[in-house]
Structure prediction request, 251 residues.
Amino acid sequence: MLAAVAAPQQARAAQACPRLQQSLPVPPPEPGSRPGAPAAVQASDYRHRIRPTHLGWPRRDIWCVWIEPGASDGPAARWDRRWRQAVDAALNEWSSLLPIVVVDDPQRAQVQVLRRRPPLRGGRASHGRAELELWKVQRDERWALEPRVLVSISPAQRLEATQATALHELGHAFGLWGHSDVATDAMAAVPGAQPVLVLSARDRATLLWLQQQPALGAGSGAVRPPEPAQEQKRPGGGEGRPWRMDSGSDR
Ligand SMILES: [Zn+2]
Prediction:
């Protein structure tokens, strides 16, 4: 459950979601290097359709999520509240499987949820998109590899459609980078006639399988601090472009 009580939530966020101190983009892999292999087919889920990054599975034991605040009064407030209600409902659904902490500072988050229409892609409009980058980050004086995910959810849909879009895009954000071929799954490539507002047994099984996989950088040892020449003083900054992938013109 997402806590409605502000004070314990803030204390938890400070502990579980430390603020970003420094960050460096993780560059793309060398040309010719191979991406990680997908999992073997399993009838009860769609794990074989989910792809890892070249540095492993972009999954976490706990996710810190920042949601773009809306207007608190004026004519936009009602619509912004409705959008937030849809995003909260989708997050709540995932939080039955994953520890999720909602933070009020984007520097504490790995996932940022933005209230905007995704930019056109190849002339195609969409209602949702998730974009993944890999960063080497320092928090609490320790360096680690982290996924950084931008989730765009259009404010221009009905409540139920917004909720279904948010459920799907958050699934990408939490590491499901691929699509199911069954329309009643939240992560279906092609949505059915009914918006999917709850996770299917297959969605749950796939996510629970993912949570058992080694996380980013596992096997390569601890992430070393960067050489002084590389160091960036700007939190969230860093020169160069990180490796990235996204969900395309989703939904
Ligand atoms: Zn998708």
